[in-house]
Specification:
Order of helices and strands: EEEEHEHHEHHEEH
Number of strands: 8
Shape: elongated
Mean pLDDT: 91
Number of helices: 6
Low-confidence stretches: none
Strand order of the largest sheet: 1-2
Length: 221
């Protein structure tokens, strides 16, 4: 609740602002249904960043977890000891253990959760802990300078060029290659990923293909 949709964590650069963090998944770690209270749970946040590093974001999450732990302890019982809070890397180092790396075919989110559970089992102090870690792959922001070749070509076609792409798209994977210039020309519509998803046909099937062709033609001259 402290992080989900909290606009205090939006980042701004060059007059453009990110979306706030959003909760992607919240679950306990039980393999099957039972009435027994779960001994552990996890939450994923999708976090948009422009210049913040993984370490910056983990530091923010750790700070928020410490404050939430304190509030929870006070709510449950006055004077209760709050859970300990670590990054997973700090916790492993404290226990003298190295973190393993996932194999390329594993689901990295499941692997990181299982790795957190493995490290937890090594702790002789079984008092509650909150562990903060990167659950998935961190994608660098998709950035195109209006003064770059691709930015100038887009502007000549009357396209308003934003420095940052404010969402997630296939272009996000391109950013992992480092320094590869890219621009995202997309369809226009409503209700993405919903049963009512639809696009504006005139723009999406006529204007957009023409814009894409003209931009490629300019860049290939």
């Amino acid at each position: 609740a402290a992080i989900d949709y909290n606009t205090a964590f939006c980042e701004e650069d060059l007059g453009e602002k990110t979306q706030p963090p959003v909760t992607l998944k919240l679950s306990d770690t039980k393999d099957s249904y039972s009435v027994q209270t779960a001994e552990s749970a996890y939450v994923y946040f999708n976090w948009f960043a422009l210049k913040k590093t993984e370490e910056d974001i983990l530091s923010i999450c750790k700070s928020e977890a410490e404050k939430a732990a304190k509030r929870t302890a006070e709510k449950i019982q006055h004077g209760a000891v709050p859970p300990r809070v670590f990054t997973l890397k700090e916790y492993a180092a404290m226990l003298g253990e190295d973190l393993r790396q996932p194999d390329p075919y594993s689901d990295i989110r499941d692997f990181r959760i299982s790795e957190a559970a493995r490290i937890r089992r090594l702790d002789p102090d079984m008092s509650p802990v909150i562990l903060v870690f990167m659950a998935g792959v961190s994608y660098p922001p998709v950035r195109v300078s209006p003064d770059s070749e691709i930015g100038r070509a887009a502007a000549e076609l009357g396209i308003t060029v934003k420095t940052y792409y404010p969402y997630i798209s296939d272009t996000s994977f391109v950013s992992l290659l480092g320094g590869v210039p890219s621009v995202n020309l997309g369809t226009f519509g409503k209700d993405a990923h919903m049963f009512s998803e639809r696009v504006e046909m005139e723009y999406s099937f006529k204007d957009l293909p023409n814009l894409t062709w003209q931009l490629l033609t300019k860049l290939m001259k």
